[in-house]
Amino acid sequence: MFSDQAIREVIYRACLALDAEEFETFMALCSPDFNYRLTVFSPEIRKDMTWLEQDYAGMKALLEMVPQHMTRPGSLKRHVSVYLIDRDGETATVTSSFIVIATDGNGKSSVFVTGNYYDDIDCSGDQPLLRSRRAHLETRDLGTGTHMPI
Amino acid sequence: MPSRDTETWQRAPAVPDTHYVSGLVYSDPEIFEEERSKIFGKVWALACHESELPKKFDFRTIDYAGTPIIVTRGGDGRVRSFVNVCSHRGAKLVNEVSGNTRRFICFYHQWAYDSEGACVGIPQPDAYNETGLRAEDCGLREVRTDSKYGLIFINLSDEAPTLNEFIGDALEPLSPMLTGTELEVFHYQRSEINANWKAWMETNLDTYHGLMHVLLRKTQVNSSREITLFLGGHAATGGSGQKYGDYGNWAAREESLALPGIGANEMKNGDLFPNFTILCRGTVIRIDTVTPISPHRLLVECRGLGVKGESESDRHQRIEHHNQYWGFAGRNWPEDAVAAERCEATFGSGAARHQIIAREENLRGNDDGMLRGFYAEWSRMMGRPANNPFNRS
Fold this sequence. Notes:
Chain A is of the alpha+beta class. Chain A has helices at 4-19, 23-28, 56-65, and strands at residues 30-42, 47-55, 75-88, 91-103, 109-122, 129-137. By secondary structure, chain B is of the alpha+beta class. Chain B has helices spanning 6-10, 24-27, 29-39, 163-167, 175-179, 197-205, 214-219, 312-326, 333-347, 369-382; strands at 20-22, 45-49, 58-64, 67-73, 79-83, 98-100, 103-105, 112-114, 119-121, 142-148, 151-155, 183-193, 220-221, 226-229, 235-242, 266-272, 276-280, 285-294, 297-307, 354-356.
């Protein structure tokens, strides 16, 4: 079983890879049965919503197309705090909070979104891997949005 | 081709007056204030979908062009709307965006109103005996409300034509999709964007801008698109095929999931002047409404609709189809937002002088007819020509 530090690191490395838009590095941190879901609750329609859902192949394809799109100018920076690491056999369940800061082309920064990650980490192999991630947003107003997952 | 000096840059484009728009319509504060009264104060605007008020006493609150509104289904099943203002001290009466209540009770002094807008409770009323103030004179300000095809509209004007007169035949091309099965909203998202409200509406009316979207360049067959213009600045498009399998790892859409009256890989849109668009991508519907906040800021609200009571797997597939374009990391939505902000960056500062809407393709393909129809209605309602709103020589 991997240490808590090793489990935190896979989450931090995943954020650094997405921040840098190093998509192959991010996918290398995901297990082949990876599943990603971005959820948010709407008080307007009183429903839980899924705003993005991808398996490994879908996420890989989504990321590979990003450079062809006209994306928002500037960059996104994911700031993550890992709160809880719970273990069950070869799986670690991790609860983290995130704030994503958008910095525009002129260097002006603002909060883009905030929420929690609920991750399952596969600890059965040579390195811990993200098996599933649910990113639950508190933020519901996305401004100009993004082509990138959080 | 030579570049232009100040005089030639400011000169009107060499096209008919109806085929270009002055940059002032996006930036001038006087025009913005007039739009709120002359346009948004008189047209029917979407408040919500019927499925957002399924039960008696359900309510939604919205902000419509600076006016807070409560929309509620009364005990008699009828949907009514009111200005969301307490008659007493003018406080915003309801702060929640949705809920269910028989009584709207103002937090401030506990004045109470029923779902028909009547004032039904004034604490310590005897103190008003001296002045003769009566509860029956203190009801909420009702706003005209009507629905069509499950869409609930409001109108701030007591004198405007009826909803049916306003819409005319403009939603007929979409009626099979909207009425052939019971729909419900599964997706709601709002965003404030730094742009004039018309810049967002143009992303729905300007089919030519599909060139901006890599997804549309790969998947959309524009040559077969047909545009229909209606009275009142409304419009519809149809006949545009979609090759979803040509993007990333996507697949063509299964016909079994198609909504009534449309093929799964077909697209039909409808636009109601000034701020409403329905996009039907075969298997799923998105509804856009855009509301002005300031000359340089807009609110866009997007709803995704699926079939009420459908299987979990069908809903899952429909949500995926919705999100491919319009979800978080959707392939189209962020690009439209960036386009609106890029136009704001130039029209807002006055650097851009005109916008050209002069494509003529006999209302097929990427004809600018919908934009011209929009600005013809804008000019009529504003009493100002969109190409020269201050009649400057």
